[in-house]
UniProtKB/TrEMBL annotation:
Occurrences of domain TonB-dependent receptor plug (ranges): 79-179
Compartment(s) of residence: Cell outer membrane
Bilayer topology term: Multi-pass membrane protein
Gene3D superfamilies (alphabetical): TonB-dependent receptor, beta-barrel domain (2.40.170.20), TonB-dependent receptor, plug domain (2.170.130.10)
GO cellular component: cell outer membrane
UniProt record similarity statement: Belongs to the TonB-dependent receptor family.
Protein's UniProt name: TonB-dependent receptor
GO molecular function, one term: siderophore uptake transmembrane transporter activity
Recorded coiled-coil stretches: none
One Pfam assignment: Plug
Signal peptide as annotated in the record: 1-25
Amino acid sequence: MKKVSALVAAAILAGHCIYAQPGWAADAPPAADGQATPAPKTDLTQGSLSAYDLPAVTAFGVADQPPTVPVQTRFGTQYNVVTEEQIRQQNSLDFYDALRNVPGVMYQKKNIIGGQTGASLYVRGRGASHPSPDVNIYFDDVPRSGVLYGQSLADGIPVYALGGMEIYKYPQPSRFGSGYAMLNFIPKYMTEEVYELRIGAEGGSYGTVAENVGMGAKKENVDIYAAQSLISTLGHKDHTAAYQSSYYGNMGVGLSDNWTLRMMANRVDAQTQAPNNPITNTRATDRFDTQTSLATLSLINKYSNASGYLKGYYNDTLFYLRGENSNTTTSVQTNNLYGLRGRETYTIWEGSEIVNGFDLDISDLRNDQRRYATNATTSWEFPQHRLFSPYAAISQMIGSKESFHVTPSTGLRLYTSSLFEDKAAPQAGLVLGYNNTNLGFNYARGVNYPSPVVLQGLLANKTSLPAGLDTKDIRPEVVDHYEVSLSHTQPGLFTASATVFHDDGRDRLRAYMYGNAMPTSDFFTSSTAEYKINGLELSASVTPTDNLELFAGATWLKAWAKGDDGVSTGKMPYTPAFALQTGFKWKFIEHFQLSGDYQYLKDVYYAQNWARTTSPAAPASTAPNLTEKDRLPDINVFNARLDYIFSYDDMHIEEGKVFVAVNNIFNTPYAYSMERAGNDRGLYNMPGTTIMVGFDLKF
């Protein structure tokens, strides 16, 4: 495998060199004054694959379409987007809320803003596994999450720094590596030669307030953008207060017509209180504190037939689980993530698209714990994990986009791990189409590596693993994904899509958390635990007039799982049998805009997680036994926002908005989480009707 990885890496480096040869990579045409004319922003974000039926693109390269409608790529894959404008229309204060209209995606939360420890983000039935993540969280195409135990850390992502979001809902080896699904947050930067100042503030129910200030400038080959934001709430019930403070900067320097050096940095500090148990009115944890800093340095190229980047990153995240006030446990989790990533997409001959790249991701992880009741302390220093994954893929369109066309594709990603078994992940696709109608077929293998936390039971107050344990025998989880999609676009009027998919997962990981025995390497991966998920997704958007846009998406999921105990179940945590998301945007009476959205989720079953381990006496990866007592009440939520849009030249206000946003308009009781104690259960109810009033000013 190492020799194959080296060959793929060599091919990648060769590709980076070939595309840059000036003999065939065209520069931007010169303007009349001899200066290069900047190309219009019509291409997608740095990591995206070329798409069929691409609509307009935002300034940050995000496909400008509703969150329910997927983007179809030439590789037979799909992904969804949430634009900066959509985040504002939804009046989202954290990234969980920004995802509420993406089909197949749901989340768990107990507070108005912020998140808790453990699993909290779910994509097509995956995400409930604990510890270690199923769903990757990327910011600027690099990892940013609590990878030790798999926290999504909604507290650590500032929505005011986002130019949009990309949501990949199943394995796509040519786009991302280890994991089942991936969210990529697109950072803001200056794209036009202007000076800009943005100021926003809002306040409302339960002492919830938010403010943000952003300013930037772009002149010739240099651009800079800086932003600050603060969000705070007193909470909708006792002990549910939260806040988030963020500082963000992004600077780009054009080295030539085709090369740009870009630096990005973000610091976030946040606190989220843990609500009381709804049954006992007590709590085991007081609050969760997050301190996270991320910096990236990117060398970006863009030619007429090639584009890509080389990106280095460093992410330092401290996650505190604090229990001193309740005399329980305080845990300090240290996540240091750093590495180097390269990616290039280019065309050599007509109709081709070639993608190659590599990800080198390194993690240094530690957990320090203190139990206040006994004053006992325990530390775990986990072995460094280095994961190198080169990849390559190619597609070839035969025919014409305007008439009949056939586009076969294939790709491969290789994984070389310093701790665990090496793996390979193939993908294959085929798109058949005529003009704006496309039928896509896709197969991809997902490989989900554990974090070193699966070794926790062997590392308490120790600096090394026991002799005789070969971690290279520990296999990662594997899922085979099959998908068929049909889409049609009538430009300027409507888009419709239907997708059928099947997941077949095996080699479920087990985590050895307790340390009462010496496991063999075979223990860490189950040969019996498995799962299958079948799904259907329908989505559409229609623009009947220039001032009205409607969108909708529906998802049906049917799950089956079997644990090490041989017991099978048709229920998996946070895998709704049916989900509906729909919304609209309506501009009227010249200066007014009304936007709204509705979410309905049916048959959602709660479980703390799909544990990869149980008690020391019977360690296993066992599917939870979910009953009617574990089923959350169906979720029905309708939200709306009314904007008055204006400009005022005397004060240099290019665009101003005064708005009122109302969430849960019909005051419907709903919850994403609960507690069980025998036959008793208690819901962590979310707020009833909430109102926020605010303004956004762009100078």
